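Could you join me in thinking about how sequence relates to backbone shape in a protein? We need material for that, and I hope you will provide a protein of your own picking. Label the sequence line and the structure token line clearly, so we can match residues to local backbone shapes. Would you write everything just below, so we can both look at the same thing?
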Amino acid sequence: MPSVFRRRAALALSLAVTAGLVTGLPTQPAAAEPAAGTVEVTAPRLTGRATLPSDYLAPGPRSGREVTPANGVEGPFDGQVIPGFSGAVADDNGTFWALPDNGFGTKANSEDFRLRIYKVRPRWQQPDASGELTGSGAIQVLDYIELRDPDHHISWPIVNEDRAGRRLTGGDFDVESIQRMADGSFWIGEEFGPYLLHVSRNGKVLSAPVSSPVGRAPQHHDLGGAQPTVRSSGGFEAMAASPDGRYLYPILENSLVDDADQRRRVVAEFDTTTGAYTDRRWDYRVDTDANLVADAQMVEPGKLMVLERDNFDGEAAMIKRIYTVDLDETEPSGALVKTLHTDLLKIDNPDLIGAGAGWGTGETYSFGFQSTETIVPMPDGQIMLVNDNNYPGNAARVPGIPDDTEMIMIDPDAEREQAVNAVPVIAHRGASGSRPEHTLAAYALAIRQCADVIEPDVVSTSDGVLVARHENEISGTTDVANRPEFADRRTTKTIDGVAVTGWFTEDFTLGELRTLRAKERLPQVRPENTRFDGLYPVPTLTEVLDLARHSRTCTGEPVGVAPEIKHPTYFDSIGLSMEEPLVEELEAAGLNEADAPVVIQSFETTNLKQLARRTPVQLSQLINCSGAPYDLVAAGDDRTYADLVSRAGLREISRYADKVGYCKDVMIPRQADGTLGEPTAAIADAHRYRLDVVGWTFRVENQFLPTEFKSSADPNADGDLAGEIQVFLDAGMDELFSDNPDVAVAAVTED
């Protein structure tokens, strides 16, 4: 069975040699053996930080006359705003050429914003040899190049059409990515066409803008009456260059409008020597359809770093990652194989660089800006990153205050020791104690919190697509009740013998379901989670599997997935059997293997017996505290969960399953006063038949804890979850589910 489900601390010490999987880069030999209960891993580390004040004004005419007010700021401004940087290239002596975008977001509100490339020098705040922080931490603006078209290479009218110099503005182009050639000229990728622009070392347009070969955006100058195929602001946010500068690799930020696969981002190849695109194309597939490709750099021939991000800001962010791809390696689907390089929401910061500057600036540093848009690989292996702050719109660090432009330097190959979970921690519906359950945000946070496994409950849409929801009735976990267009879908159904009224996934197509947004299921218990209501869509199982296989645990192992099939008898009865598509999903993800970090769970028995003949992955029989599996009830079989926990029942389970998932009371019942009683024989009996025992569900709030571990009479206050977990571990429990993986991980890594 996979080690992710059977790991112990002693065994995990042997995994140090695999720790480089965290970043995908080679590690240096360890100077000493890791401490007991830890492994040596590589993980990104913050090595420098510098900022430019959000309200910094460069010389030039007033800008921002039409800017949308935000965070207490409105234009116009007495100079040229620098609204962060969307692209950058390294220059000499620690300086960079950095490119802001079109200014304020649209053609209409950016006509007074001049397109420039700024030369900047970050005066890094960084530790010296003694560990003391040095450097001012300021970004110096040294010079700038203004883009202009005096030779009329642009054949359509521009904002400054009749003005001397024909300076370009944000009303003309939305410049987003940049590469510098050996002769000092720049190639720039932009979004309104999307176009490629070639400008001289002093900013003069050298040739006509080159249109994308894969489609046109709504702002293209020559769209005519045709329908746009590239989304607005979905053009060349990212553009890599081959090391010799001959080829450029612009990547669409978003999907094509009519693409059947809305997660596909097209990579093209442009030959700078001929000034034309080649016929080579690749598909890069983002983690979820709303994610964007923000930047790309070629680190060696054919191998790219790709910066992928969601569109959320600050604490709401879920995906800000660097992946590596090889243009010669594709999956069976045709998409490029992705390998996680760096999770920018979890950067080690032991030197406390920038500490106290707002959210995400502590010992774990988060580069969680909405527009995390620039990566620059450095010759020494470090990576420089900078944000576009969408001035004055973004406020990731301090709510209500516009973000500064922030440049950071990270070492993606830094070494440190990582504590190993003594038993696997399974994130119950993700980090559902901190984010609305069954969202990619909850799953991604759980991974950052060092969970070993993420757990999606699986139900079906009307068109047979498997999605992650706690139940098929979704009024408690989405905003469907507030959507008048779906009011007529409210109905009453009998699910597993119980009448349930609400809205059901099987009455929605995937397209309809994706218009809904998740909300906190227990708002009275977890009011803090309601801050994220309305942000995240319902994820498909495919997305959950892809997130897991494109991630790594804190110790560098593959992230496990434990899908639970909900109400299988009911879904079979309406012609939406889930077992077959689940196996197909695993096969497509390359996870339908005996050693895959996957375990399929069910409270019913028949479907697990069927799956035992159809898939080699592990299976887990879930056992409730009371009642009976509904498939047995429907078949007239009078066996209950209590019967399944008998030795005879466990012996039968061992013939088709690898694990049993016990309700906590099955292992240690509670006494009349709410305290824990004596352990039953359930754990020892399961072990007799070589079944791993998984306990569910460990939650931090007092109302879910035994009396002796409550902190107060407040049912929603945090109690001593670690203490409760320890009692169950002492009783022999092998794995555990928790809504609070961070607390559970701390409990199972303590000496």
Notes: The longest strand covers residues 38-52.
